[in-house]
Amino acid sequence: MNKFIRVDMTTKQVTVDEVPAKYAGLGGRALTSNFVADEVKPTCHALGKNNKIIFAPGLLSGTTAPNSGRISVGAKSPLTGTIKESNSGGSFSQKMAKAGIKALVIEGMPTDDKFYVIKMDINGVTIDEAPAEILGGCGNYKAIEILSAKYGEKVGIALAGPAGEHRLPSANISFKDPEGNMRSAGRGGLGAVLGSKKVKAVIIDDTGAGAVPIADPEKFRAASKVFAKALLDHPVAGQGLAAYGTDVLVNILNEAGGLPAKNFTAGRIDHNDNISGETLNATITERGGEGKVSHGCHPGCIIRCSQWYPDKDGKYITSGFEYETIWGLGADAGIQDLDDIAYIDREMDDIGIDSIETAVAVATAMEGGLLPWGDGKAVLDAVKQIAVPTPLGRILGGGTAVVGKVCGLFRTPVVKDQAIPAYDPRPIKGIGLTYATTPMGADHTAGYCISGNILKVGADIDPLKKEGQIEYARAMQIGTAAVDSTGMCLFVYFGIADNPGGYQALIDMINAQYGIELTAADVDKLGESVLKVERAFNKAAGFTNAHDRLPEFFEYEPCSPHNVVWDFSPEEIDEVYNF
Amino acid sequence: MNKFIRVDMTTKQVTVDEVPAKYAGLGGRALTSNFVADEVKPTCHALGKNNKIIFAPGLLSGTTAPNSGRISVGAKSPLTGTIKESNSGGSFSQKMAKAGIKALVIEGMPTDDKFYVIKMDINGVTIDEAPAEILGGCGNYKAIEILSAKYGEKVGIALAGPAGEHRLPSANISFKDPEGNMRSAGRGGLGAVLGSKKVKAVIIDDTGAGAVPIADPEKFRAASKVFAKALLDHPVAGQGLAAYGTDVLVNILNEAGGLPAKNFTAGRIDHNDNISGETLNATITERGGEGKVSHGCHPGCIIRCSQWYPDKDGKYITSGFEYETIWGLGADAGIQDLDDIAYIDREMDDIGIDSIETAVAVATAMEGGLLPWGDGKAVLDAVKQIAVPTPLGRILGGGTAVVGKVCGLFRTPVVKDQAIPAYDPRPIKGIGLTYATTPMGADHTAGYCISGNILKVGADIDPLKKEGQIEYARAMQIGTAAVDSTGMCLFVYFGIADNPGGYQALIDMINAQYGIELTAADVDKLGESVLKVERAFNKAAGFTNAHDRLPEFFEYEPCSPHNVVWDFSPEEIDEVYNF
């Protein structure tokens, strides 16, 4: 990966440079965050011409390393105002890496009103006008079909959906997956940044690319084998996720009393059987047809937590049907019918809007009287309005913080204006520390303390107690920042957390690829340095420790069934970033 | 003024205490801001049970001092997240002061869903259930009629309109004026705070109250006379404002090239004659009927800048028809018909929504495609929807920052999420420093540098140059914080800025009333101390110098006709608060 591509959308000029030396050892989140910190003015407007957006494959992307196909996207976020890295599956990362492209930077802003498609291949970069038929409300499923027909069925595609075209703060970036469906860099509104630059899509065609060079192929193969075994041997990474998808968590979290219900007014629901991973699996199996219990979101995935959810006639409705989405609509918004939830999930993918932000926005809108509680049909209709967008669609597309503002609510579950996902921080205290302190705004993937608090993988910490949580949330965030830089799916953590050999194999693969000698300590240092860079950006953008706080209602509204409140002091919370 | 009243809306308990010693010498903004800083947790949610709202007459309110009838309201703002003082005319302040009430604090939050009316008189405080007919969309004009019929025609009334009931971030607090119409504590959404506490209205009945005690009545009378003469002798305070209202500024600002047009994309309009103060005056005069060219917004006002604007049949449409509102709708949103603007102004008053925030939100919504440019009828219809509220009404009632978010705009004219009013900061640099640095969020009244930049009252500074602006913006903010503590209308500044005797007379009145010996230096110190308290609150709430910035587009989009950009460096801006 020796090419560093810049596309200036003001001038439509393309520059293909060698990778700057300072970025040579970085990939994924480490690269996107360092780049944004280096080149984006922290106080700039996220939708103005001075923001820049960067796509970067992880360090291991493009290789045969299992689960190494995550693509990182970075920019200043229009949702949170913070620095943002959001990563996704799909085939984009592997193809970019194979084509030797370390990063694509899109900067500037056109003065005309046209939308464009940026196409990269091994020969260079072209900027085309976007086909009219994929604009103006065309859904992502259709747009991928049209773009695949035009640019080739096997190309990788990154796409701003209708939500991104309208620069809505919850717009995601959708990436074509191996079967032509989508995965998303969901959080933080990066689709709106792409839309602000009038880039409808980015195409990567790796035709003619050779294999990614590996310095020590034998060592790489050996390490890769150990690593794959570590994943497959683990009950969560190797079995649970493939069988039930991430939705396996519904029953686990409900049992733990940490499944936020009815806009975070309780921690448990009665209709968990309607929406659980077990029901999801049984329904897919029973309906057959195009349904798939398990598939991978990117080439090389061996965890295969995704699935195709079919309708009663066996026809595909949606894929990548994640726990957090199902929780948001099913528990937080109280929609009891899994089919209703599936159609809404499909719609959100088709519009290109973050399914976590939107599901929580929907639940908050229900509390605010904008939508009837638990009404899946009404929600589907409302979510469709995001593509137009109608005023209601704009409110929902504005994200949970906007809904809270226009409904005058104090129970608005956001940190740094990003929606709190599917794990209540009162009875699961570790995850609350991640929500509060990560530079990303509320984000479970930034330090998944559910692992040690609930799943007891990698650690065993009482979720109801404060003991050990600060150190754990710190370690998880540091480790995650490092993993997010490798191109690895976060779920590899389950396979290596309690398996030192598996962890070493991950490091060995990097060393074998690049001919270097990283140690575990180096990896920690990398994670720490990424977090420090991100935090410094946020500080310059105006964020302080006062923003590292959960919404106040968590402090005085107890969460049933455990009837506990959020009770970390500001001083304790601030200890998480004491490194 | 020896009573300090607290109403706890959680328990419905009322406490009437002596004024705490630390607040004895404070009034108006000095009192509200010190109180909020003392008792409100800066990181609390502005619409949660831990915010408190305080009403405080100025130091001179209740006396015969001309123009001393402003009431200050303070709380944490749901619009900006900062500390907020918003003040208003009407008869409330004078009556509260006469009844001996230094402050009314409303705290807590009911657990039921009813709305209440708090009634204060010289005997005590009662809490009644609000009459059903003033709830659920009843306009303020009607509500004042009903409340006056119930509590007495002469009572003072503070009111949360439909916008406040719905806790919209732009909701104002409306105060009954001497003729039964309204004035507003407009900015910062304090009506939403009142609404969150389920207080529909506060009544002050001063029946039976004696005169406010004056330590040295003779000295007071003498000073009052000098002060009144200073106001009446001044061409702006004594003549211009009475003749043309604040709308006199349309032609002045247009001529100066600092009248923001079409969502801040230019500094001058061609249709200024349609909406100017001269036209306003001529129209009122010509139409006759209930029209009044000039009247005072509170008892004791001798500047009389307000007016009653009648329809073609001479029937009252609206009063308090201010320049900033007319600018916002007429120039920023491009509505060319003054009658259209008047009907919208009436509607905003009736709904209880800040006419500056809403007018700018309307213009921003036009840029975002939510409303057609310049269409007064469409805007009236949209503004009416705020009372319902429909989704569009909620977006507009959410304020300009929300409109910018849901429309994905970078040209969103706000500072600290509060709309920038009627003076472009690029060609009038002094006011830009006030917008950027005042603890209130963009607010021209926090340091009205238009005075020395454009009107050449009190100073003569080239508006297009940076020289002298930092010191001037600092001095104006300090002086304003002091004036806001006296109960004086800000326009007294015009009368005393170039008249040392007039200024001394203001100080003499305070000294004569309280039997003290304040000097001009003490007044400055008071102003400085208020700003420091406010800024400390904001800092603890998470605000930093990075928030003391204008929107980025001012830095790179030149404003015609002078074609200048905002060019103060961050370091220069930060010098304003170097005291």
UniProtKB/TrEMBL annotation, chains A, B:
Domain Aldehyde ferredoxin oxidoreductase N-terminal: 1-208
Segments crossing the lipid bilayer: none
Cofactor(s) needed: [4Fe-4S] cluster; tungstopterin
SMART domains referenced in this protein's UniProt entry, alphabetically: AFOR_N
InterPro entries: Ald_Fedxn_OxRdtase_dom2, Ald_Fedxn_OxRdtase_dom3, Ald_Fedxn_OxRdtase_N, Ald_Fedxn_OxRdtase_N_sf, OxRdtase_Ald_Fedxn_C, Tungsten_al_ferr_oxy-like_C, W-dependent_AOR
Keywords, ordered alphabetically: 4Fe-4S, Iron, Iron-sulfur, Metal-binding, Oxidoreductase
Gene3D superfamilies noted in UniProt: Aldehyde Ferredoxin Oxidoreductase Protein, subunit A, domain 2, Aldehyde Ferredoxin Oxidoreductase Protein, subunit A, domain 3, Aldehyde ferredoxin oxidoreductase, N-terminal domain
GO molecular function: 4 iron, 4 sulfur cluster binding; electron transfer activity; metal ion binding; oxidoreductase activity, acting on the aldehyde or oxo group of donors, iron-sulfur protein as acceptor
Domain of life: Bacteria
Signal peptide: none
Family to which this protein belongs: Belongs to the AOR/FOR family.
Protein name: Aldehyde ferredoxin oxidoreductase
